[in-house]
Design goal:
The protein folds into 3 domains: 3-142 and 325-342, 2-Layer Sandwich (Nucleotidyltransferase, domain 5), CATH 3.30.420.40; 183-319, 2-Layer Sandwich (Nucleotidyltransferase, domain 5), CATH 3.30.420; 362-558, DHBP synthase (Alpha-Beta Complex), CATH 3.90.870.20. The radius of gyration is 23 Å and the shape is globular. The chain is 33% helix and 19% strand. It has a 9-stranded mixed sheet with strand order 13-21-20-14-15-19-16-18-17, with helices on both faces. The chain has a 5-stranded mixed sheet with strand order 3-2-1-4-5. Helix 5 crosses helix 12 (329-342), helix 7 crosses helix 10 and helix 14 (384-393) runs parallel beside helix 17 (500-513). It is α/β, with parallel strands linked by helices. The chain has 18 helices and 21 strands.
Length: 563
């Protein structure tokens, strides 16, 4: 009999499931939003029956022979904690709504095993501290054995910041913040004031918009006063201070119907304030912990700030996991359950691969290819990277669906849309004709890890697109489609030893064009999660300006596709 450990992200938003085997190896992880194709999957069970069943099959789980342990990413039901819901930055009604969703996810965890007939009664569930799950997931994926691990998010059981010490791959909490005071909540409020919706994960739009604005010094000082930092811990300022700052920000904000650039200065100022506050939190880490730093929690998705940590501080290395937000906590819960059950005190070795999700169904692929009427279908075994590189050089935009899906919010070459970054019009073409999103939003560059220093200042490995770095001034004009307004790019580095196909594509494109950089963006359209099925991929092909889709090594091209 084999034992598997099922970790569930039970926040009520960003649900996900993860599976660890009896050796401690992470064998599967996937966000529920991909499966249901509903952004952030609010209120949906992380062990959704129709999602859990194929996930178990993918790892070789045998009903009747193997058993399963269930774990969640919270120790408690938030609604049971005798703490008042804060109105400090977001409406209290939002807090009550979130608590209700979290309570539902916590109480129903493991119930899907009944529906699948895998248990005779609802299983007992291991429950783990929310910030501990964040830290465990990050430390498991990290290549570091020793580091300071800082968790910054919207809210844990009692606060929004925790500091852990990773020593010989064993984890110990050093301190945590208590009570209200949250950078995640601050950024959610900023997102709403800029005319976007944090419930849809539109914080990305604020980060992108910030590059077009100017920091307003007086407003920055006013907004910074909303949060107090003491020894790394956060507290909201007095309510009148918060309300006064919010009123000041309103004059620079926008409604969703107003022109986008109306909020550019507020976005830039808010991002600056976020950086100031995060810097003050990090001051409590510097000097008393190892020189390596792991940053996780939802705030670790702020790649613009992450880029400022690289090469400018006392930390020798900075690591951010592929899924630092609440979906990643499914991994933390699963590995913590394995450690508790087996008595292991240290995290097992992990190759750091983010490619942990579902793979294309060969039967669905064959059916889709047969029904691809009006398209040219070419089987390219062993040479698909070279052929896609050639088509990118010719000006085609190609969607890629290969191997197992990435775990985390960023497409890393397995569920990506790829294009030529040299064309000044490529950014507008993809935003308008393929993604259907705002024209100002940037795209990511991909470069092999050994050549990243030629293109970026303060270069370091960035396999999960976690860091936004400045382009070298001599290179920017060569790749205008992936250079943001402020001269930066959210880079993905690929290593031939880890990701040979994508590395081969980038190298081939470089040989053909003398520019070893490829444009990468997520394989989706605005408002939808990254594709999950072959039908999703072909749907984007047929309803957008996408020119072709590569499914494993089969290229499906529109007949009308031209350079």
């Amino acid at each position: 009999m084999t034992r598997f450990y099922l970790g569930l992200s039970t926040s009520g938003h960003d649900p996900a499931l993860a599976l660890v085997d009896e050796t401690g190896r992470l064998v599967f992880a996937e966000a529920t939003e991909r499966f249901v194709q509903d952004k952030r999957a609010w209120g949906i069970a992380p062990d959704h029956v129709s999602h859990l069943e194929p996930a178990l099959a993918a790892v070789g789980f045998e009903p009747g022979r193997d058993d399963i342990v269930v774990a969640t990413s919270w120790t408690t039901v938030k609604a049971d904690i005798p703490v008042n819901v804060s109105n400090a930055m977001l409406p209290g009604s939002d807090g009550l709504w979130l608590r209700g969703l979290q309570a539902q996810a916590q109480s129903n965890a493991g119930a899907s095993l009944l529906r699948l007939g895998l248990v005779d009664e609802k299983p007992s569930v291991m429950r783990f501290d929310h910030h501990l799950c964040h830290a465990a997931a990050a430390c498991l994926q990290s290549p570091m054995d020793d580091a300071a691990c800082l968790v910054i998010d919207g809210e844990g059981e009692v606060g929004a910041i925790s500091l852990f010490d990773l020593s010989n791959r064993s984890l110990k909490r050093k301190w945590r913040s208590w009570g209200p005071g949250s950078l995640g909540t601050f950024y959610a409020w900023l997102t709403g004031t800029c005319g976007f919706d944090w419930r849809l994960g539109e914080e990305w739009k604020v980060m992108g918009l910030a590059a077009f604005g100017e920091v307003l010094p007086d407003l920055a000082d006013t907004l910074e006063a909303m949060l107090l930092v003491e020894n790394g811990r956060l507290q909201f300022a007095a309510q009148e201070t918060v309300e006064s700052a919010q009123q000041a920000a309103t004059h620079h904000g926008r409604r969703s119907s107003d022109p986008m650039m109306q909020a550019a200065d507020l976005a830039a100022t808010g991002q600056e304030v976020y950086a100031r506050l995060a810097d003050r939190i990090l001051q409590s880490v510097t000097g008393e912990t190892p020189r390596n730093l792991i940053v996780t929690g939802g705030c670790a998705l702020n790649s613009s700030y992450n880029g400022t940590l690289v090469g400018q501080r006392e930390f020798a290395q900075v690591f951010v996991p592929s899924a630092p937000a609440d979906d990643g906590n499914a991994v933390g819960a699963a590995v913590l359950a394995w450690m508790k059950d087996t008595g292991a005190s240290a995290f097992p070795a992990n190759d750091g691969s983010p490619y942990l999700g579902s793979a294309p169904d060969p039967r669905a692929a064959a059916k889709a290819i047969r029904s691809a009427g009006g398209c040219k279908v070419t089987d390219l075994p062993g040479r698909s990277a070279e052929e896609v590189a050639r088509r990118l050089e010719e000006g085609l935009i190609v969607g890629v669906m290969r191997g197992r899906a990435e775990f985390g919010p960023r497409a890393l070459g397995h569920r990506s849309i790829l294009a030529d970054p040299r064309s000044p019009g490529m950014k507008d073409r993809i935003n308008e004709q393929v993604k259907g999103r705002e024209a100002y939003r940037p795209f990511a560059p991909v470069v092999t890890v050994d050549r990243a220093e030629e293109w970026f200042e303060r270069s370091q490995p960035s396999p999960y697109m976690s860091f936004t770095l400045p382009w070298r001034a001599t290179q920017r004009d060569r790749v205008p489609a992936v250079v943001h307004e402020d001269g930066t790019g959210r880079v993905q580095t690929v290593d031939p030893a880890v990701e040979p196909w994508m590395s081969k594509l980038v190298e081939t494109f470089g040989q053909r064009t003398d520019v070893p950089v490829v444009l990468n963006t997520s394989f989706n359209v605005m408002g939808k999660p990254i594709i999950h099925t072959i039908e999703d991929a072909l749907g984007v092909l047929m309803t957008s300006g996408l020119d072709a889709v590569l499914i494993e090594d089969v290229l499906i091209e529109k007949a009308a596709a031209r350079p």
